[in-house]
Amino acid sequence: MDARRQLMEYLTGKWVPPVLATLAELGVADELVAKPLTTSELGVRVGADSRALHRVLRAAASVGVFVEVGDGRFGLTETASLLRSDVPGSLRDAARMFALEPFWSPYAQLTETVRTGEPAFDQVFGMSIYEYLQANPGAAQIFGATVASFHSQALKAIIASHDFSPYQTVVDVGGGSGNLLIELLQAYPECRGVLLELDSVLPTASSTIAAAGLSDRIELVAGDFFAAVPAGDAYLVKSNLHNFGDDKALELLHVVRRGNAPVLVIETMIPAGNDPHYSKFDDIEMMTIAGGDDRTEQEWSELVTAAGFAVRAVLPADERFSILIADPIYVSS
User: Model-level pTM?
Assistant: First the structure.
């Protein structure tokens, strides 16, 4: 591919997310499970103009998401199947989220973020992303579902990469719906879990944990991880610290340090070199939307050390996540 064509593909790539988001919002993939359908048939089922729907599906098919099979009918591809609502690892909510105004319009102010170092989201909406989500439960629901779906396929690899048997009670700090604890406790029947989360998140977590049959082994604790953490033999902090700049991330780690137990920081780590990696653009998302940072292994190690921990090991879990294991440093008086 010549340089001009390559750059044009990057520039016009902005057209793809809204197309996929529209098809996800309409639930088109769910309607195509049994067989390909015409856009007239689909339009009736999903409540859309058949001509407009044809144009959007044709665009999606051109990048391998859905396929036109002839006679005006469209069907699923393997990629399009991930937009179904009923498949493991569904990315339907992720497709919907990335085209929502709060996750789209701040990028128009990215240049200002680069000039000032301040998140564009706050400039556009006059509040942080976290304040916005608290005030907009619909967006918060899609955001939570997106986080769960984005990380679901990595959970088994994360648990398999470390021996959790020494820990009788594991505290998941800001653990969302509890999926990581569920995976952990299913692999280690002798272990118990504590989920620390906001009041607003706990009802979803309670349902998720109950569905896994683990309500008797996971304690739900409502709280603010910047204030205090429950007692435990180890602390999991997954995909939380990258939401914050160094000062707030260090504040959170200092609170965890007061628990006097090992911390397992589970995050994506930016590799050296020019090769593509999820973390390099996730870092831009963090900078633009949340004011956070993805970090290199060295930067993560320095942050954890500054909070009063000694890094024991860094273990790769899968292509995105690594586990940094650190022990509290005890200073003799």
Answer: 0.90
How far is the C-alpha of 31 from the C-alpha of 27, rounded, in Å?
7
Q: Quote the number of domains for the chain.
A: 3
Distance CA 208, CA 182 (A): 9
Structure tokens at 201: 């998140």
In this structure, the answer to whether residues 199 and 276 fall within a common structural domain is yes
Residue closest to 88 by CA, chosen among 1, 154, 144: 154
Of residues 317, 146, 121, the one with CA closest to residue 236: 317
Neighbours of 215 (CB within 10 A): 13
Give Cβ neighbours of residue 298 (< 8 Å, ≥ 6 apart).
none
Q: Domain limits at 130?
A: 101-148
CATH code of 74's domain: 1.10.10.10
- pLDDT tens-digit series, residues 112-126: 999 999 999 999 999
Q: Is 254 a catalytic residue?
A: no
- Asked if 118 and 81 sit in the same domain, the reply is no
Catalytic pick among 54, 151, 242, 277: 242
CB 97 within 8 A of CB 146: yes
Q: CA-CA distance, 79 to 91, in Å (whole number)?
A: 10
Instruction: Output the CA–CA distances (angstroms, integers) from residue 199 to 130, 131, 231, in the order listed.
Output: 14, 15, 19
Instruction: Tell me, yes or no, whether 120 and 221 share the same domain.
Output: no
Tokens found for residue 135: 């005030």
Tell me the per-residue pLDDT of 128-170, one tens digit each, with 9 for 90 and over: 999 999 899 889 888 888 888 877 889 999 999 999 999 999 9
